[in-house]
Amino acid sequence: MNIWENEISVWDRLKKENKPVILYGMGDGADKVLGAFKKYGIKASGVTASDDFVRGQSFHNFTVKRLSDIEREFDDFTVALCFASQLPDVIKTINSVAQKHTTVVPSVPVFGNVLFDDRFINENAQKIDAAYSLLEDEKSRQVYKNVLKFYYTGKIEYLSTITTDKDEAFKNILKLSDSEIYVDLGAYNGDTIDEFLYYTNGSYRRIVAFEPNAKNFKKLKLHCAGMADTHLWQLGAYSKNTFLNFSNKAGRNSAIADKGTSTRVAAVDSVLCGMAASYIKSDVEGADYETLLGMKNTLKMFKPKLNFSAYHRFEDIFRLPILIKELNPNYRIFLRHHPYIPAWDTNLYCT
């Protein structure tokens, strides 16, 4: 599947760029982009941020400036977007910047250090093709191709033509009933339980929720207080029962790390102990593949509907469908991308 014919990678494009390259955003994403710039020999000429965030601060020896200041400093320049957002107003602002200036999105992985470049494509060509052949409908195949082309080129327009709301996936693919046995992996503060209840009109048979972060787990318990048939576990999902270090980041970004807080993780199969599951949502911050391995018996015995993140690592978009099909060949596999720049909230829906 040669979908990159006549395309140039975002890294080669920026390396050959004869205009100044301006980073838009600062923080972890910009750190990773600058690391990639160093690897590929790309020079950054400045840093900008949304007006509300500009306070004259310094980032990697650059003074962070408003876009209007950058426009006065340079006659023409290329913008490299270095942050992620699903907020409509922010996406509108990004598109507005892209209308005025050449704008690309150098994709860096949420977790890991692997970059999406020609070497990555060549090393994974067979798996990329294999996963494509497993997708159930034409919409999934178009999402797959466009997300991969976005990763490679950094062109925002590859996302705009495939973006759909979650309603489409929940109503047309998952079709949740009022008697689901729901397993929520990465339940955070209960927001995805609320999402589940929205699509089941508040009815269910049982809820089992995992959340590894202690602060989030307290919020989850408060959120679910008084709910019937709800079983909460302060655990991370993984391939086996053990202890792993988790980062201490706030919010839903708690994840396995080299250093951090020692945290219990468990295989879903070991917690369910043969109990049925009819719907499993997983947003486990980079441990998605291992989580699937830890629920292989559940997938084989009960074939629950699945809602799995497929964007934490570039390889997830092809290795997760392949593994799901290996664990239960009867799955129908769909792929959807919901409003987000870059290609976050790209999810597998399996029935």
Main β sheet profile:
7 strands, mixed
Averaged pLDDT, please?
Answer: 93
Percent strand equals 15-25%
The low-confidence parts are none
Helix and strand succession?
Answer: HEHEEEHEHEHHHHEHEHEEEEHEHHEHEE
Structural domain tally: 2
Shape: globular
CATH architecture of the largest domain: 3-Layer(aba) Sandwich
Describe the 3D structure.
The protein is α/β, with parallel strands linked by helices and 351 residues long. It has 2 domains: 97 residues, Rossmann fold, CATH 3.40.50; 210 residues, Rossmann fold (3-Layer(aba) Sandwich), CATH 3.40.50. It is built from 14 helices and 16 strands. A 7-stranded mixed sheet has the order 9-8-7-13-14-16-15, with helices on both faces. A 6-stranded mixed sheet has the order 3-4-2-1-5-6. Helix 9 links the parallel strand 7 and strand 8. Helix 5 runs parallel beside helix 14. It is globular, with a radius of gyration of 21 Å. The model has no long low-confidence stretch (mean pLDDT 93).
